[in-house]
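Q: Sequence in, structure out?
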Amino acid sequence: MELPIGNPIGTDMNLGKADFTKLVPKFEGLKLNGYLVMDLLTNNGVEEGLLLFNNGKITGCSYNYLNKNKIINGDKALELTMKACAGRGVFDLYELDSKSIELAKTFNKDILISKDTDNAKALNLIPKVFEETYLEKEKAPKKLPAEEAPKEGPVNKEDVFKKYGIKRPDEKNLNSILEGVKVKKGVNTAWK
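A: Exactly. Output:
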C-alpha cells in the first residue's frame, strides 16, 4: 500500500487501553484526515491493521499478517482490524492533508470499504475480548506416489532426492550456483 508519511498525532499508544468506541467518534467530530496503524503480536506473528480516515469517516482498511506475507484489504480487513482493536499492542495516528487522502484512495482502491459501512457499523465489529484468527497451516510438501520411493532396504541420498523431487545439479547448474562464490587461496575447502 502506498501512503505518504503523515504528520504524527500520537505514536506508540497502548492498544489495550484505548477505547475506540470513543476515539473514532472523536475523529469524526474533528473531521480527521489521516490514518491509524496498529501492530500486535499474535500466534501468527506480527499483525498490522490500518484504518484510513477521510473527514473523520473510515473509508479504507488493510490488514497484514507480516510473518506470513499475507495482506487482506477492504471490508474483510475492516472486520479483522476492528477485532484487533480489542487486542494488545500499540498504535500510531497520523494526519494527512485532503489531497494526500484523495491520492491514497486513488492509488489504493483495493483498501476502500463499502460505501454503506459507516463508523457506527464498524464500531459494532469490536468484540469485548480479542480472539485470534488463525491462518491456514502451511501446506505440506507434495508427496510422490509410494511406488517411486523404496519400500524396503537401505535408503540412499538419491532415494531421498527422488522422494522430495530434488534434482541433482548438472555441471551447468553447478557452475551457475558457484559463480558468485569466491575461495581464498590456502583455505581448506570441502570440495578440493
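The helical segments are 20-30, 75-84, 98-107, 119-123, 157-163, 171-178.
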